[in-house]
Design goal:
The chain is mainly beta. It contains 2 helices and 29 strands.
Length: 343
């Protein structure tokens, strides 16, 4: 199960009461979950103290598979009614089995009125663009660069894609890669034969560790990479996606043995890759953002943790999903969502 951060399929959810006198709001941010069978589930809770306010409400989903900002796939919807409201809340969910990566947009309507933008939610599913390799401030004279791969089978439009805030251009064929860096002939000398795209400016990556961000339209996270200091101070280039290279770059990574877990009958194995010199916390939250417990505090270095859930009272009798958060003191947090199975 993977919550990504990437590629992506995307969702934004908007809500407005038709008469504008009473605006509906989600009681917590909607959640997107990935599961090993390839399915993706969107779920949300809508406050409905007045069930009649749900009359004519529906969530409309549309798809954009080439990142051009235009819906180009089949549409789907959820109809919300007063029958959905129970104890002041309407719980909504929809499971998708995407045949290919895409941007997923979900809008909440009441009749013919679309909600206002402040209540929009954006999430991600699938992977359209991923960071393949990167070169962070090597001292051997090579320019910095980040290499992206189109993980889909179709051509995608890069005109709204940004790496570290720098806007790209053109299109990228399915399965193809592009190497992006500062506008310099040095890139051609160091990476001959590569498909190179240059930008007029560049925000330098730290060779002591940093995070590389790839976004769509400055709102949707397509991919990100947290890395640590290069093992060899004279060579700051590494491949991004494999565990070997993540470990070699002394970055952070978190892997779970299960994506669906019954804490009453089995252990959850948590494998953490982390620098020896950087402390981190590992905590458990529910999807409303409330902390259930801390699995580890001020820990440093790699760790293999067998978590039973017995020291996390909020898990007793719980079903649904929880969020595991690895929060380093020196970089952005990593998050994994896991589904809690019933007894």
């Amino acid at each position: 199960m993977k919550q990504i951060t990437l590629p992506l399929i995307v969702a934004s959810f908007l809500i407005l009461q038709a008469n504008a006198a009473s605006t509906l709001h989600f009681s917590a941010s909607p959640v997107l979950e990935h599961f090993p069978d390839g399915s993706v589930e969107w779920s949300a809770t809508l406050s409905c103290t007045d069930p009649s306010s749900l009359s004519g409400v529906r969530v409309l989903f549309s798809f954009d598979s080439d990142l051009d900002g235009v819906a180009d796939g089949a549409r789907d919807s959820i109809v919300v009614s007063s029958a959905t409201c129970e104890n002041g809340q309407a719980r909504l969910s929809r499971t998708f089995f995407p045949s290919s990566p895409a941007i997923l947009t979900a809008e909440l309507w009441q009749g013919v009125v679309l909600s206002d933008h402040p209540s929009a939610f954006t999430g991600s599913l699938g992977t359209l663009l991923s960071i393949l390799r990167f070169c962070a401030r090597p001292t051997n004279g090579e320019p910095e660069w980040v290499e992206l791969r189109n993980t889909s089978s179709g051509r995608i439009n890069l005109s709204k894609v940004r790496i570290e805030g720098h806007l790209l251009k053109g299109t990228l064929d399915g399965g193809a890669t592009v190497l992006v860096g500062r506008d310099s002939n040095d890139l051609l000398n160091w990476q001959p034969g590569a498909n190179i795209m240059t930008t007029t400016s560049w925000s330098s990556l730290r060779n002591t560790g940093d995070t590389v961000h790839v976004t769509w339209d400055n709102t949707v996270a397509l991919d990100s990479l947290v890395y640590g200091a290069a093992v060899d101070s004279h060579e700051g280039c590494a491949s991004a996606p494999t565990e070997e290279n993540v470990a070699a770059a002394s970055g952070f990574a978190m892997d779970l043995s299960k994506m669906r877990w019954n804490p009453r009958t089995e252990f959850l194995s948590i494998n953490i890759q982390a620098p020896i010199s950087s402390e981190y916390d590992l905590r458990v939250f529910d999807l409303d953002g409330f902390e259930l417990c801390a699995i580890a505090k001020n820990k440093a270095g790699p760790a293999k943790i067998q978590f039973s859930g017995s020291d996390c009272n909020g898990l007793r009798g719980k079903t649904g999903s929880i969020l595991l958060q690895l929060r380093p003191q020196s970089s952005a947090p990593l998050r994994k969502i896991i589904r809690i199975l019933g007894p």
